[in-house]
Amino acid sequence: MARDRSISSASRRSFLGLSAAASTAIALRIVTEPMLASAARHKPRAQDGVLIDANENPLGPCASAREAVLSIVPQGGRYLDGLTDDLVKQIAQMEGLKAEYVRLYPGSSNPLHHSVCAFTSASRSYVTADPGYEAGMFAAGTVNAKVVKVPLAKDYAHDVHAMLAAAPDAGVFYICNPNNPTGTLTSHSDIEYLVENKPKGSIVLVDEAYIHFSDGTSVVDLVRADKDVLVLRTFSKLFGMAGLRCGAIFGRPDLLERVDNYGGWNFMPVTALVAASASLKDPQLVPERKRINATIRSSVFAWLDRNGYSYIPSQSNCFMLDTKRPGKEMIDAMASQNVHIGRVWPVWPTHVRITVGTAPEMEQFQAALKKVMTGAVTASVAPVRSASRRRMDRLLKRV
Ligand SMILES: Cc1ncc(COP(=O)(O)O)c(C=O)c1O
Hints:
This protein is of the alpha/beta class.
């Protein structure tokens, strides 16, 4: 009997040990846009193709950011922690925040994931729009929080009234503004209403990854006013630094401390710090790139109108195209033309997300789209089942 007991307690210990390790591993698994984009591909994208499936910026870093990266490379053997403090101060000053309200990360995916883990749990739900950016849903899954998906309103804004009604037990209300994938805006007054009427102990997490492309109003003033609001920003979109990795979260220090508990702070790549700093010093960069994106987007919309195709007007570098047929087939047929378009959200199975590329890329997109829509191209690409694709599929099944 004694022997049996010791065996069972040993196996229980090892089971607990294993399960703790497994749950830690899952909690750390951060899902990002490039992972989601690659999971939707049936074939690796050809680098000489039209790459409009991951909301990247084809312009890349601006000239001064490139120069800054090149000139810091010889010092790449040093930690140079003063550079982080400098960029925090620079951003804080631009946003009218105290430095302790700003944290830097290599991209905004980490603080997004950590915020959701910090403020949701088995008893505090994660509330998000449908269709909406999926990363936070995966984060909620890692802490066993319920995911409450609320359809966008008729004007494709977040339906803040429905979000409040759907989850009296909410821990996090996630507002992506402009929304990924629709590129549509939610008004400052609606977000303020949500903040004023949300359940006690919850936070509103406002993801402003694409705000610079739009005419939307940031809610950084609500952070300044010490509300229960966290704001995410990234240099991956308008600033063209997705591969360089720089992002930030703004919030009251007590909220940021809870976010810190989930991943802490790690040293930032010096290349990212100097590129971000140089980008922010160029006063023309945001208006110029916003104008370039809007001009190309309007021209694509005018072409879609002329040809009778349906889409949702967007204020961002992406939009939803209603193909009136299974979106997944569309992705394959377009890929056969070397045009890699974005994924489908289950709630809208005939829509595909299109990223706004360069003008020549969008001409290639239009030519391929016409061929596919008129039936001149029906080829389907044979699925490639890579190990990473299979792993992602397993994760996707969880939300
Ligand atoms: C809405 C949204 N938030 C956050 C991110 C994270 O981007 P990154 O980690 O590159 O900053 C993305 C990336 O596409 C996004 O679309």
